[in-house]
Amino acid sequence: MEDPWKREFEFAVEVARKAGAEIRKAGESEIRVMTKSCTVDLVTKTDERVEKIIIGSLKEEFGEGTHCFIGEESVAKGEACVLTDKPTWIIDPVDGTTNFVHGFPFVAVSIGFAVNKELEFGVVYSCLEDKMYKAQKGKGAFCNDEPIQVSDVQDIKKSIIISEHGVDRSPEKVTKIFSTMQKILCIPVHGLRGSGTAATNMCLVACGAVEAFFEIGIHCWDIAAGAVIVKEAGGLLLDVNGGPFDLMSRRMVSANSDTIAQRIIKEIEIFPVVRDDALVQKK
Ligand SMILES: Nc1ncnc2c1ncn2[C@@H]1O[C@H](CO)[C@@H](O)[C@H]1OP(=O)(O)O
Ligand SMILES: [Mg+2]
């Protein structure tokens, strides 16, 4: 079958590479840090500039009328975060901003593309490692052009699981997050990890370095691209309650297999979050 989104996919890879080069360069000079929702929710001029570069390049190439854009920093400034049937780019210019600010070496550019609310392709460029992860629906997943596959480990006791703790430090939420982590750690699993970027975490599931990554609180731009990459590498995505994955719900389990996913889901203590598409628009 003809590939209707080939041009968009190839362009996304090039834009991600260009954005990653900008991030690397910016990391060499002083980084000016600002905050968003709270003192640990960081943003830099680089996040804003790189998002402008990405969206600007895409608009120039594909026009503004037919394509829609959901970008982390544009939403922070009040743009809509609603997925329609139109071709929609879902962008995190700097995933792992806290890592970027501290020089912790995992920072990714994440570009997902959905049509009719279904993800068609995803590109994650882990720019400090120079790893380009990409996948198109039905065409497999790749890292630097080599095919990648999820791990075949089915025994949770032989797994490594990733989770993160987000930016909400209210004691009730932190208690739930750590209680879940404690229960999983004590199954026991081989280890718990976290790279500090959701997009990279998903690529670690996709290439078989870990068996699963789950989180409550992530946003659509953190995981849109990674979702395609995990699926195309043979993995699966679920809601944290075991139901179907919903990109806008801010809840996700990505895993190499249903067995591993269900075992983790048994332990997850769910707490409420406001859906991405329920965020109040400021514009
Ligand atoms: N409120 C939140 N809760 C959980 N994860 C969040 C979050 N806000 C951002 N993240 C993302 O989760 C990972 C670390 O927890 C990063 O990918 C980070 O993306 P960011 O660096 O683009 O903000
Ligand atoms: Mg992010």
Commentary on this structure:
Its main location: cytoplasm. Homodimer. The chain is of the alpha+beta class and 283 residues long. 34% of the residues lie in helices and 24% in strands. The chain has a 7-stranded mixed sheet, sandwiched between helices. Strands 11-10-12-14-13 form a 5-stranded mixed sheet, with helices on both faces. The protein has a two-stranded antiparallel ribbon with strand order 1-2. Helix 6 runs parallel beside helix 7. The longest helix has 23 residues, at 6-28. The mean pLDDT is 96. Magnesium ion binds at residues 72, 92, 95, 198, 221-222.
Topology of helices and strands:
Layout (H helix, E strand, L loop, with lengths): L5 H23 L4 E3 L6 E3 H18 L5 E4 H5 L11 E8 L1 H6 L5 E8 L2 E9 L4 E6 L4 E3 L2 E3 L11 E4 L7 H15 L5 E3 L4 H9 L5 E5 L3 H13 L3 E3 L12 E5 L2 H8 L18
Bound molecules: adenosine-2'-monophosphate and magnesium ion.
CATH architecture of the largest domain: 2-Layer Sandwich
The kinds of small molecule bound in this structure are: adenosine-2'-monophosphate, magnesium ion
* Broad CATH class of the largest domain: Alpha Beta
Mean pLDDT value:
96
CATH H level, superfamily name of the largest domain: Fructose-1,6-Bisphosphatase, subunit A, domain 1
Identify the overall geometry: globular
Q: What percent of residues are in strands? A: 15-25%
Q: Which bin fits the share of residues in helices?
A: 25-40%
Number of domains: 2
Tally of DSSP β-strands:
14
User: CATH topology of the largest domain, anyone?
Assistant: Fructose-1,6-Bisphosphatase, Chain A, domain 1
Any idea what the radius of gyration is?
18 Å
Low-confidence stretches: none
Q: Return the structural class.
A: alpha+beta
Order of helices and strands: HEEHEHEHEEEEEEHEHEHEEH
Count of helical stretches: 8
N-to-C terminal Cα separation, in Å? 41 Å
Biggest β-sheet: count, sense, barrel? 7 strands, mixed
Major β-sheet strand ordering: 3-4-5-6-7-8-9
Subunit structure: Homodimer.
InterPro entries: IMPase, Inositol_monoP_metal-BS, Inositol_monoPase_Li-sen, Inositol_monophosphatase-like, Inositol_monophosphatase_CS
Cofactor: Mg(2+)
Protein name: Inositol-1-monophosphatase
